[in-house]
Amino acid sequence: MPGGTIGILGGGQLGRMLAISAAQLGYRCIGYAPEGDNVAAPVSADFVTAGWDDAAALARFAARCDVVTWEFENVPLAALDAVAPERLFPPRGALEVAQDRLDEKRFVEGLGGRTAPYAPVDTAPDLEDAVRRLGGGILKTRREGYDGKGQWRIASERDLAALPALGGRPAIYEGLVRFDVEFSVIVARSRSGELRFWDSTANEHRDGILNRSLLPAGAVIEGQVEEARALSRRVAEGLGYVGVLTLEFFATAQGPVFNEMAPRVHNSGHWTIEGAATSQFENHIRAVAGLPLGDTRTTAQAVEMTNIVGDDGADWLEASVDGEVHLHLYGKQEAREGRKMGHVTRLSR
Ligand code: AMP
Fold first, then answer.
1. Atom of ligand 1 at shortest distance to CA of 145?
2. Contact criterion met (CB below 8 Å) for 144 and 184
3. Which CATH class is domain 181-348?
């Protein structure tokens, strides 16, 4: 109940926005992450800086929390052992599936989802076979890739010589999907199994990183969102999910093609803070705390969320003074290339 303590594994901007929402509902958040620029720390009631392998620190952290969640999908599974399963939301199995691109694809295919053509790649001959069979595509490490990291585009077999060594990391090769636009389905599922979806934005990427999310999303996405939601529902139910879950899709001539899932709140849902009746962050907190979910309807006519990535040279404090423009800066110390520093949401009512 409000007044209780929610533990959050991970200390990035998603944890920061979760902690702000939790505070509004009267919860205290304790974050946990290894040393780093943990921008969730200044807005959390307390923050533990310790390694993922520090079993004693994890046990002390878990003992102080009524429930524990995560904001980062690369939390090592072993770190979850410190938390009793009935206090961990989403469930461990959701993190396990989502940490491995191959397991994730097989799981979603098993539920009737469409994916890019793919092949597991463990050796150089596996990759040669895959490129010969699937043509141009993308080699992705199975684990720990995000924002285009751990990915290499391959146009033809000639590119194979130039590839960096995978160093024994298992990978997956995906054939290129021809798509019109990209979108994501963001769904919240409560402990009682209630599901709520936000409107799906059109997502534009730049250098493998989300650049903008837009509503209205356009006719192509609107025509495919029901099918994508039906699959997302089966995924959420199949995992016994509690919290906010995101599935990313390509809108293609054959219908929605599942790309990947994130067992957490998502960058393409940041607009919901001001543009929806209840934000993804609030509904994640509501779900893990066992409260009923809030209404997810869009409250604006049009939404444009733009990420602030690295040092883009723009003066965002000046740029955000007129109209319904909401500036979020995450308080990161250093604007390294490719790093998400903040976002801006512009709304038309
Ligand atoms: P991911 O990290 O898997 O989300 O990939 C990052 C971005 O690369 C996606 O949002 C797409 O824009 C693009 N991409 C990834 N996989 C494919 C694919 N199989 N075919 C075409 N584009 C892709």
1. 2
2. no
3. alpha beta
Q: pLDDT tens digits for 172-213?
A: 999 999 999 999 999 999 999 999 999 999 999 998 899 999
**Chosen CATH of 5-88 out of 1.20.1530.20, 3.20.20.70, 2.40.160.10, 3.40.50.20:** 3.40.50.20
Instruction: Answer whether 151's CB lies under 8 Å from 205's CB.
Output: no
Does the beta carbon of 150 sit less than 6 angstroms from any atom of ligand 1?
A: no
Taking the domains of the chain in order of start, what are their residue ranges?
5-88, 117-175, 181-348
Distance 222 CA to ligand 1 centre (A): 20
Tokens encoding 31: 């974050």
CATH fourth-level superfamily of 117-175 = ATP-grasp fold, A domain (3.30.1490.20)
Smallest CA-to-CA distance from 133 within 173, 179, 178 is with: 173
- Is there an atom of ligand 1 within 6 Å of 172 CB? no
247 lines ligand 1 (CB under 6 A): no
Q: How far is the CA of 259 from the centre of ligand 1 (A)?
A: 7
- CA dist 61 and 32 (Å) reads 8
Tokens of 198: 């936000």
What percent helix, strand, coil does the chain show, rounded to 5?
30, 30, 40
Whether the CB of 104 sits within 6 Å of ligand 1: no
For ligand 1, is residue 327 a contact (CB within 6 Å)? no
Residue 147 has pLDDT above 70, yes or no: no
Ramachandran area for residue 79 (φ above 0: left; ψ -120 to 50: alpha; else beta): alpha
- pTM of the entire predicted model: 0.95
Please enumerate in sequence order all residues whose Cβ is within 8 A of that of 161, keeping only pairs 6 or more positions apart, or say none.
none
The label of the residue with tokens 């054939």 reads 175
